[in-house]
UniProtKB/TrEMBL annotation:
Residues of the signal peptide: 1-17
Chain ranges of the MH2 domain: 72-237
Keywords: Signal, Transcription, Transcription regulation
GO cellular component term, pick one: heteromeric SMAD protein complex
UniProt protein name: SMAD family member 7
InterPro entries to which the protein is assigned, alphabetical: Dwarfin, SMAD-like_dom_sf, SMAD_dom_Dwarfin-type, SMAD_FHA_dom_sf
Organism name: Chrysolophus pictus
GO-annotated molecular function: I-SMAD binding; transcription regulator inhibitor activity
Organism ancestry: Eukaryota, Metazoa, Chordata, Craniata, Vertebrata
Length: 237
């Protein structure tokens, strides 16, 4: 009984405790092996900005016309090429995104229904568990992996500004990474480039896949082939 009580208390604290202090990866350790870059730009992978919301407006139009800039990001959940559920607007400084988190408060993926889920999607969904926590801090946005499996992240601010491709970074359970840097993102903008004047700019978007990676180091070349993944779009206003 005493052991059961200790275990129950441990899981309760794990569910309620914030991620800091982080176990932070050295950036060089996170990078894939040489010769395995992710060569596909974000904008060609997801088509996320073309997904229609209720009323026939795209998500970017909904955000643009709402006039509400109080959110610092919105989150879209995808299963392969299908977006499931509506955009989740984030106003609090941190957000838990999880499948099953005891007394969890945030974006519960386990409550989202979808028709014709494949067995692989169902299997990966069940492994999301405690999921991740997004936290907006002074130096940027950190992603803390609270699940029991790796997550995979691609962000324009994680790599060398001169890089022609973006790498996919693997984050193991219990570790975190600064997935987005506002100062770096603004410095990467090219206002005269037509591609970068569209909303939302891909440099303000982070992609996160649960359990399965993608890119040239993996069998899945595109994130849209991953069973369960997130698209996090940051407010650049």
């Amino acid at each position: 009984m005493a052991r059961l009580f200790i275990l129950s208390a441990f899981f309760f604290l794990l569910a309620e405790s914030p991620p800091p202090p982080y176990s932070r990866y050295p950036m060089d350790f996170l990078k894939p092996t040489a010769g395995c870059p992710d060569s596909v730009p974000s904008s060609t992978e997801t088509g996320g900005t073309n997904c229609l919301a209720p009323g026939g407006l795209s998500d970017s139009q909904v955000l643009q016309e709402s006039g509400d800039n109080s959110h610092w990001c919105v989150v879209a959940y995808w299963e392969e090429k299908t977006r499931v559920g509506r955009l989740y607007s984030v106003q609090e400084p941190s957000l838990d995104i999880f499948y099953d988190l005891p007394q969890g408060n945030g974006f519960c993926l386990g409550q989202l229904n979808s028709d014709n889920r494949s067995q692989l999607v169902q299997k990966v969904r069940s492994k999301i568990g405690y999921g991740i926590q997004l936290t907006k801090e002074v130096d940027g946005v950190w992603v803390y992996n609270r699940s029991s499996y790796p997550i995979f992240i691609k962000s324009a601010t994680l790599d060398n500004p001169d890089s022609r491709t973006l790498l996919v970074h693997k984050v193991f359970p219990g570790f975190s990474i600064k997935a987005f840097d506002y100062e770096k993102a603004y410095s990467l903008q090219r206002p005269n480039d037509h591609e970068f004047t569209q909303q939302p700019w891909t440099g303000f978007t982070v992609q996160i896949s649960f359990v399965k990676g993608w890119g040239q180091c993996y069998t899945r070349q595109f994130i849209s082939s991953c069973p369960c993944w997130l698209e996090v779009i940051f407010n650049n206003r």
